[in-house]
Structures are given as structure tokens and as C-alpha cells.
Amino acid sequence: MPNRALPNPTEWQDNPYQPEWAERDFLYSPDGHREYPQHACKITYELSKPYIRNFRNALDIGCRVGEFTRYLHLDFAHVYAFDPNLWPDFRKNVDLGRVTHYNCAIGAEPGETMMFGGTHAMQEGATGRIVPVHTIDSFGFEDIDYIKIDVEGFEKKVLQGAAATIERCNPVIVIEQNHVVLKDDVQYSAKEYLEALGYISVAVDRRGWDFVMVRD
């Protein structure tokens, strides 16, 4: 498949984020805004922190409104966040001076994919739309110390398109593996893919979904 030009970073009109909101675990989302000190993303990130060797750059793939990004950007020098849906609340949850957002899907090879609502799976009544797909390797990122991936069953494809970055940077990787599986895939395929690369699971969240993977 031919190479596709890389997307430009998202340009936001404003950045209402306030630093004190992080101290209160204050989250804006389509469901409203509230303090959320026990959010699953916070718990997973805290599980992974002891295994992080450096805090240079992080990738948040499937960032949505920034539930996970908001914790990453407090510790890492910079965060690159990706989502095929443009959530207006993202700009309220993070300091955009420390985060670069890309409105695209991430996969195994450049091209396009059909999205239905917020997922790749067809949903009754949902209107499909075509979104661009890029690989992590095509961005040529350096000094990536952490990758979080939560893309509704697309995790293995994201990893395949990030193989060179993973080999070069050896990051801590957090992947969600639950009942959402693509039609041509099997459950835990992303975890097994990483294990074949020498990664091991060192922690899992209380739901049994988010796996913290590291490699010596």
C-alpha cells in the first residue's frame, strides 16, 4: 500500500486546562465533569510507574478525552496522543504545551479504515465513516519510553506498525486486552505478540484488562 503523508497535529482554538484540576483528578468528558480519583486509567498508570526507566516521550494511542494522557503529561517531557475521533473535552484535560494530538487511526500499515461510532465494529444504527490510518514507525519518533494502547481490539495491528520503534526504544507498554476482538483476530493476541518479542507481563489492573508489559 502506498505511503500516506503524515497528518498535521490537531490545532485547537483554546486550552481551558487548569493545573490544579490534576491535583483534584478533575475530568471533563461527554458524561459531564467531576472529580474522579479512582479512575481506571490512574490506577493502571500507577501500576506501571515503578517499571518506567526514563520519562522522555510517551505515546497515548486511543487517547479519547485524555483520561490517560492527563497522567502521562504530568511526568513525561512530552506526550504524543492519537485518536480517530476528535473529542472537544481533550483540550480541557491536558496542557497542550506538553501534548501533541493527532486526529487519525493507528495501525499496521498506512491506508484507511471504516469506523462506526467510536469503534471498528459495525453497530446497529451507527453511520460508518472512513478515517486515515498511519503507523507509529512512520512518524520516526525517538526516545519513546512509554506506550499505552487502547483501541478496541486493534492493539496487535498498532504494535505491528510500531515494531521498529519498539525495537529501537524498548518502552514500557500498556495494552488493553478484553472481550473486544476484531473479526480476524483472537483475544490476547497483542499480549502474545509482545511476548514473542521478549516482553513479559509484570502487572495487570483489577479488571484483568490492562497489561503492563516490559522487556529487559
UniProtKB/TrEMBL annotation:
<dbReference type="InterPro" id="IPR006342">
    <property type="entry name" value="FkbM_mtfrase"/>
</dbReference>
<protein>
    <submittedName>
        <fullName>FkbM family methyltransferase</fullName>
    </submittedName>
</protein>
<dbReference type="InterPro" id="IPR052514">
    <property type="entry name" value="SAM-dependent_MTase"/>
</dbReference>
<dbReference type="Pfam" id="PF05050">
    <property type="entry name" value="Methyltransf_21"/>
</dbReference>
<dbReference type="GO" id="GO:0008168">
    <property type="term" value="F:methyltransferase activity"/>
</dbReference>
<feature type="domain" description="Methyltransferase FkbM">
    <location>
        <begin position="100"/>
        <end position="181"/>
    </location>
</feature>
<dbReference type="GO" id="GO:0032259">
    <property type="term" value="P:methylation"/>
</dbReference>
<dbReference type="InterPro" id="IPR029063">
    <property type="entry name" value="SAM-dependent_MTases_sf"/>
</dbReference>
<keyword id="KW-0808">Transferase</keyword>
<keyword id="KW-0489">Methyltransferase</keyword>
